[in-house]
Amino acid sequence: MTTIAYRDGILAADSRVTHGEDGSARTHTCKKLFRKTITQGKKTFEVVIATAGESSPGMVFVDWYGTGKPIPDIFLHLGGDFTCLVLTPQGLFEYDVYCRAEEVLDDFYAIGSGAKVALGAMACGKSAIEAVRIAARYDPYTGGRIVSETLEKAEVKRDRKKAVREGH
Question: How do residues 27-84 score in pLDDT, each as one tens digit?
């Protein structure tokens, strides 16, 4: 449960993890955007991976992506309810438990429990970061610090002041 939004070369994410959906739900803060250096033959390039859904399978995907190894056996036997967006120099790609790339050709895109709110915000001209911020106001499973990554910047930008003001 999360909101990941993409627009204009920027991936933005919230940082809230929610365990349980009933009255016993609990949350904590985590990282959902990961930068990896990939080497394919003589080419080396960076990618940014965003994870949504079940945390553990998403992290297995992050560890696996770009290794050239077969799909992890855990996915073949146990599955996993996650979605990852991978921003590469060639474009934006969506992956699930089958580890097959589907290129996203839209100008903006969002995944996670707050995706509909984020897509609506971006349809009204908001940035990826603003879209996640708006989703955090309406989706109970989105919140915490909003972070963003691009392929050009090596450091994570954090929207700490706004998250604190909004109580997330």
Answer: 777 799 999 999 988 999 999 999 998 888 899 999 999 999 999 888 877 777 899 9
| CA angle in degrees (0–180, nearest 5) for 42-148-84 | 65
Domains and CATH numbers, the chain: 3-159 (3.60.20.10)
Of 146, 154, 73, 161, the closest CA to residue 114 belongs to: 146
Residue partners of 125: CB distance under 8 A and separation at least 6: none
Cα 63 to Cα 37, 72, 98, 114: the distances in Å are: 12, 10, 15, 25
Strand partners, 157: 148
Neighbour-count burial for 47-84, b at 16+ CB within 10 Å, e otherwise: bbbbbbbbbebbebbbebbbeeeeebeebeeeebebbb
pTM above 0.70, yes or no: yes
